[in-house]
Amino acid sequence: MPLVRRIRVFHYIRAPSRAISNDAMPFRHATEPGALGRVPKDTLRKTKMRRHSGFFTRWAGTLTLLIFAFAAVSPAGAQSPARNIAVYGDSLADGVWDAFTRTLKREPGGWTVARRSSIGTGLTRHDFQTWLDQIDADFDANPARHVVVMFGLNDLRDFRDDRRGRVYGTEAWNAAYAKRVDQLIARLRAKADNVVWIGLPVFRKPEQNDGAKHLTSLYAEAASRARIAFVPIYDDFLGPEGEFTTHLASADGRRLQVRGDDGLHFIGTGYDIIAHKAMAAIRRFEAGQAEASARLPETTPPR
What we know:
The protein is of the alpha/beta class. It has two domains: 3-73, no CATH class; 79-295, SGNH hydrolase (Rossmann fold). The chain is built from ten helices and nine strands. It has helices at residues 3-14, 16-19, 27-30, 41-73, 76-79, 91-104, 128-141, 171-189, 206-226, 268-295; strands spanning 84-89, 112-117, 146-150, 159-161, 164-166, 194-198, 229-231, 247-249, 255-257. Strands 2-1-3-6-7 form a five-stranded parallel β-sheet, sandwiched between helices. The termini are far apart.
C-alpha cells in the first residue's frame, strides 16, 4: 500500500471521534470518487439515518406551523356558528339579508350573514321537498345559530301537494300550506338554535293585502305551535289612516321613504327597519340564553 494511503487509513482508524463528530462530515468527501480512505458501511448507514431523521423532523415542525397558521386565519364561521345568521325566503327576505350585511358590519362581534334567499321563490313551489332537503346541505357547508325567515310574496296562488291540486282560498289550501310551514320550521329548528319568522307587510293592492294578512296569521299560528319567535311588521308600515304608504314620519318629523313604487317591496331604509326588529328578536334570544346559563346551579364535581 502506498505510504500516503496507509497514513490516511491509519489516521481514520486511530481517531474515529474526530472523523464522525459532525453530520456534515468528511464522509461525503471520503466517499467521493477518487477520495482516499473508505468509510465503513455500518457507520455510513447510521449517519444517513441521522441525517434523514433530522430532515423529517424539520419538515414535521414546518407542517405543524402551517396547520396552526391556517387555523388562525380560517373564517370564524367555519369554526363556530354562534354569531352566524342565515336568511331564508323570497325577494323580501333578500332585502332583509342586504340590510343585515350593511348594518351588522359596523357592529363589533364578528357577525356573519349567509344569503339563502332567492328571488321568485315560495312555499308553493313544485319542488318544495327537494328545496327542503337542500337545507341539510346548506348547514353542513356553513352552520348558523340563528335563522331569519320571510316568505309569502309569491305564495298567493294554487299549487299541487301530495299529487292533489290546492286551490287558493280553500280550507284544503290552508291545511296544505300550513303543513309546509311546519315542515320548514321543523327542518330549520333541527339545524339552528333560534328561528325568527317575519310576517308580511301591508301591500298596496287590496287583494294582495288581504292575502298578506291571511298568510301572516298562518305564520303566527305556526310560530306559536313551534315556539319560535314571530316578528309582525304589518302595523309598522301603515299610514296615518291605516293605509298603505311609501313614506313614514321620521323621529325629527321628516317624511322618510321606506317602500318601493311597486307597492310590494321596500327600499334600503325600510329593510333596515325590518332587520332591526329581527335583530332585536335575536338579541332577546341570546339574552335569555345567557340568563338561563346564569341561573344554572353550581355543581360539585364527583370525587
